[in-house]
Specification:
The complex is a heterodimer.
Chain A lengths: L18 H7 L11 H4 L4 H16 L1 H20 L10 E4 L2 H11 L6 E6 L4 H13 L3 E5 L7 H17 L3 E8 L11 H10 L3 E6 L11 H4 L3 E5 L11 E4 L21 H4 L4 H10 L12 H11 L3 H23 L16 E5 L3 E3 L10 E3 L3 H14 L6 E5 L2 E7 L6 H19 L7
Parallel strand pairs in A: 2-3, 2-4, 4-5, 5-6, 9-10
Antiparallel strand pairs in A: 1-7, 6-7, 8-12, 11-12
Helix pairs in contact in A: 3-4, 5-6, 13-15, 14-15
Chain B lengths: L12 H7 L11 H4 L4 H16 L1 H23 L8 E4 L2 H11 L6 E6 L4 H14 L2 E5 L7 H17 L4 E8 L1 E2 L4 E2 L2 H9 L4 E6 L10 H4 L3 E5 H4 L7 E4 L52 H11 L3 H23 L16 E5 L20 H16 L5 E4 L2 E7 L6 H19 L2 H9 L1
Parallel strand pairs in B: 2-3, 2-4, 4-7, 7-8
Antiparallel strand pairs in B: 1-9, 5-6, 8-9, 10-12, 11-12
Helix pairs in contact in B: 3-4, 5-6, 7-8, 12-14, 13-14
The chains are: A alpha/beta, B alpha/beta.
Chain lengths: 445, 444
């Protein structure tokens, strides 16, 4: 297998999605049903083999590979991923994961008294922790907009605008707003394209947490939407091995990013930075940070090849993932007699997740000695965790279950290696487990 | 339990062929930069990755923490750290050091003390402190090689000078176990208590540490310590240990980056079942492939069962480096960096001077190197050496002379270095004959 991508691609026939795709190209344990792509991703055999080759090459001649071959492969990778964001190569760099990228952006900014970071209650937990950490160590304060689903896009935009005005009326100012492309939980599409212009209107920096971004939704219009910072994981929906995310910083903002986290070779203090163009400083900063396994960064081209030749192209992949999630979710809801999470305008499902309600009710109050098929509110989290754990222990899968807005919901990820029968099976598993919950089989102490 | 055993396969070329997978045309003389792992550890690593791929969620979300705890315990034992909850893993020493630098709360008058050969990325981290936190960085300039007593005294004097200035104090001192370039062992066992006695916190950068130099954290009790397992301990790349004794853990509030495990102050002190411990904060700092962290056992197995234990490895690696240095110096007609009373050679590195002379701006004749090209020499030797001969030479310019840093390991022999020296000698002659100068003037 060649490392360098300078030959004609080997054309393989497109493999049908579903079981065939899974068996031919993925490496899940035979008894495992992979319904949770959104958490840790998965990548096909061709990418795995390619990564192994890269690792072999690295160990065959460590200095040669790392110092002389890798930089060229890294540049090619950046050139390959930039068009997916409608961006230029030198506006895109790789980091190990979205959290590193978010910390890089948030920690590089300089905050004055009265500065606020605006975010929604649906923010990814670790991002919230980052803001909370900054509240302790800088002058910035976080401001949370409460959001409950199902919510409509207009509502979200209104809440956003209202929050900005409220903050301003307090004599403070929003320095940066952070929001998602697709939420982690519930797994729903978020109207980020509508919030970015609002940010611009008020002079607020927009930082998009696109953890579920590249490969999940079409982002070729990203640069046109003009967010100030954009972050996306490649190891989730782009089928690249774990340990690869992109950080997009348009040229106009690159001077704001003074250091990587950790600070490394490329860092220059202010006076010396001035002698370089901000573009070349930015790119060079991220070229070589600290010693980690960066083979995931240079697997992008191989992953894109797989998605093109074996899957029939990016659009085909995204369409299938979205459709199978939609249809699978509907099937599950029908089987369980429940519903999928959707708003009035139908925009939530414009992504590759489905959120299905479980057939469990919350008890109004505990009737002495037992709850007759309903779950006391105080036990709800434990029940949700129990269900998740049982899907692992007994059924060799992972169905993320949460208690949310007064009901139990599961989030399932659509992917090219799934088909309807997998969702049908999931519904049966959940029916089984919910039945046990209702029968009070749970030991919750 | 360290054994003074015999390796199953003789060290040197037999070991290289039997247990490592270098390319045929490649002679690996620079373990110090990126390390490498024996085939058995690679296999263990690949198996762990396959496990993760087979069922990602259970592996990462459910099983990882317990598996990691076991590996941390092994590292803690190897570093003689009796409380395993004072030791976490981070991707590399740079991340570990930067975690310390960026977490400390710096006050007016705080000074960081270090010497000029502090590792580049750490120096940049200090530079960042200067720029963003107004911390003063006091850099000392010992001239290596120098006797240990002198080095210790220079650092003590420098610290006392700072402390004597009104309103200033050395808040943090940074020392290495082994300096990177040139490769020099440091009397860190003396420096740590000496600087602590003057009221400083001491960060020991042990990037070149575990597996090369004896480290006893229970005895040394540095305030902060980092060491790469992926250099000299044969663990795959992306694994280092960060030691922070319990009494200082409140100073290190967040991992870098901040992740799920961060506990905001207003939740601390409140009994919170969901709160994570300091150690757990470092379990998961963003999705990554941290299967390397689970390979400590495999590395230890190789070191004990195949190599015959730590002492066997240490003796061979040190001897092969020092003996090879002698041969190299002979071939090059130069000398090894050394001085009586200095511990710089008590490690797996040796530094041999290149047969090149630095000219002046006025006089770069007779084969001398024009000062404008001095730094380009290093890059040229690296690139040409690799391209033409399969030798990668790690050299540096230090105080007007160029030095080749040799890395002694269990998979090299004196003959490897002798061959390398012949190639390097030829490269130096070409530099003397003006080849580099011509390339630079035509390229730029």
């Amino acid at each position: 297998m060649r490392i360098l991508h300078d030959g004609p691609p080997t054309v393989t026939a497109v493999t049908p999605f579903g079981r065939e795709m899974r068996q031919a190209h993925f490496n899940f344990a035979p008894s495992y049903t992979p319904l949770n792509h959104g958490s840790f991703g998965a990548f096909p055999s061709s990418v795995r083999e390619y990564q192994r080759t890269l690792r072999c090459e690295t160990e065959a001649r460590p200095d040669t590979f790392i110092r002389f071959i890798y930089p060229r492969l890294l540049r090619e990778s950046r050139e390959a991923v930039a068009p997916l964001l409608g961006a230029e190569t030198d506006e895109v760099v790789f980091v190990p994961n979205a959290l590193t990228a978010i910390n890089t952006v948030l920690r590089n900014l300089i905050y004055r008294s009265g500065d606020v970071i605006l975010y929604f209650s649906t923010i990814y937990d670790a991002c919230l922790k980052t803001i909370q950490c900054l509240e302790e160590t800088t002058r910035v304060k976080g401001y949370c907009i409460d959001l409950m689903y199902p919510a409509d896009d207009d509502e979200i935009v209104d809440l956003f605008r209202t929050a900005i005005l409220e903050i301003q009326s307090q004599g403070r100012s929003v320095k940066l707003a952070m929001f998602d492309t697709v939420l982690t939980f519930p797994g729903v599409r978020f109207p980020w394209e509508r919030l970015v212009p609002v940010c611009r209107e008020y002079g607020i920096l927009s930082c998009i947490d696109g953890a579920h971004g590249v490969g999940h939704i079409d982002l070729r219009h990203l640069a046109q939407v003009e967010p100030d910072f954009f972050i996306s994981n490649c190891y989730k929906w782009l089928m690249v091995p774990r340990g690869c995310a992109v950080l997009y910083v348009p040229y106009r903002n690159q001077a704001l990013i003074r250091t990587t986290y950790p600070t490394a070779e490329g860092y220059l203090p202010h006076a010396e930075r001035e002698t370089k163009s901000s573009a070349s400083y930015f790119v060079n900063l991220f070229d070589k940070v600290s010693t980690i396994d960066t083979t995931p960064y240079i697997c992008v081209i191989e992953a894109l090849k797989f998605r093109d030749h074996v899957c029939g192209g990016e659009e085909r992949v995204r369409d299938y993932c979205k459709t199978i999630a939609r249809e699978g979710g509907e099937l599950m809801a029908a089987m369980m007699g429940t519903e999928i999470l959707e708003n009035k305008t139908g925009t939530l499902r414009d992504c590759c997740f489905t959120n299905v309600k479980l057939p469990l009710e919350i008890a109004e109050e505990q009737q002495g000695g037992g709850y007759r098929g309903k779950v006391p509110a105080k036990d709800a989290k434990a029940v949700a965790d129990w269900i998740t754990k049982m899907t692992v222990d007994e059924f060799d899968t992972f169905i993320a279950t949460r208690y949310y807005a007064g009901a139990f919901w599961v989030r399932i990820s659509g992917q090219v290696y799934l088909e309807r029968v997998d969702f049908e099976w999931a519904a049966n598993v959940l029916l089984d487990l919910c039945g046990r919950v209702r029968n009070g089989i749970l030991h919750l102490s | 339990m360290a054994e003074t055993g015999t390796p199953k396969v003789p060290f040197g070329i037999p070991m290289r062929q039997a247990h490592f997978a270098f390319g045929r045309q490649y002679t690996p003389l620079n373990h110090g930069s990126y390390g490498t792992v024996p085939v058995s550890v690679r296999a263990a690593h690949a198996a762990l990755q396959a496990d993760a791929d087979a069922a990602p969620d259970p592996f990462i979300a459910l099983e990882f923490h317990a598996r990691l705890a076991a590996q941390r315990a092994l590292a803690a034992e190897a570093l003689h750290c009796s409380d395993v909850d004072e030791l976490v893993f981070v991707p590399n020493a740079t991340t570990g050091s930067d975690t310390i630098l960026k977490n400390l709360v710096w006050n007016e008058g705080d000074v960081v003390l270090c010497y000029e050969l502090v590792y580049g990325s750490v120096a940049h981290g200090l530079s960042w402190l200067e720029e963003t936190r107004g911390v003063e960085i006091q850099v000392v300039h010992p001239e290596w090689p120098l006797p240990d007593n002198e080095l210790v005294q220079i650092m003590i004097d420098a610290a006392m000078n700072v402390n004597a200035q009104p309103g200033k104090r050395v808040r943090l001192a940074v020392v290495d176990t082994i300096i990177s370039m040139p490769g020099l062992r440091i009397p860190f066992e003396r420096l740590v208590p000496a600087l602590q006695a003057l009221g400083a916190l001491v960060l020991v950068d042990g990037a070149h540490g575990i597996g090369q130099v004896g480290i006893d954290l229970d005895v040394l009790r540095p305030d902060f310590f980092v060491t790469n397992l992926h250099k000299w301990f044969f663990v795959p790349r992306g694994c280092a240990a960060l030691y922070v004794p319990k009494k200082h853990q409140e100073l290190i509030r967040t991992s870098l980056p901040t992740s799920h495990g961060f506990t905001p102050k207003r939740r601390l002190g409140v009994s919170d079942e969901d709160g994570e411990s300091w150690v757990e904060m470092f379990d998961f700092t963003g999705s990554d492939d941290t299967t390397a962290w689970l390979c400590v056992q495999a590395a230890i197995d190789f070191r004990t069962q195949v190599c015959g234990g730590e002492t066997a490895i240490e003796v061979y690696s040190n001897v092969v480096a020092q003996r090879s240095a002698g041969v190299v110096a002979s071939v090059l007609g130069t000398e090894i960096m050394d001085l009586a009373g200095s511990c710089i050679r008590e490690c797996f590195f040796a530094n041999v001077r290149l047969p090149l002379e630095l000219g002046t701006e006025m006089d770069s004749s007779n084969g001398k190197v024009n000062p404008k090209h001095a730094h380009a020499v290093v890059g040229w030797i690296k690139a040409v050496g690799v391209r033409e001969s399969g030798f990668y030479f790690q050299t540096c310019l230090y105080r007007g002379a160029w030095w080749w840093r040799l890395s002694g390991t269990i998979y090299v022999e004196v003959e490897d270095f002798r061959k390398g020296a012949e190639v390097l000698k030829g490269l130096c002659e070409r530099i003397q004959n003006g080849e580099l100068a011509k390339q630079i003037t035509t390229t730029y």
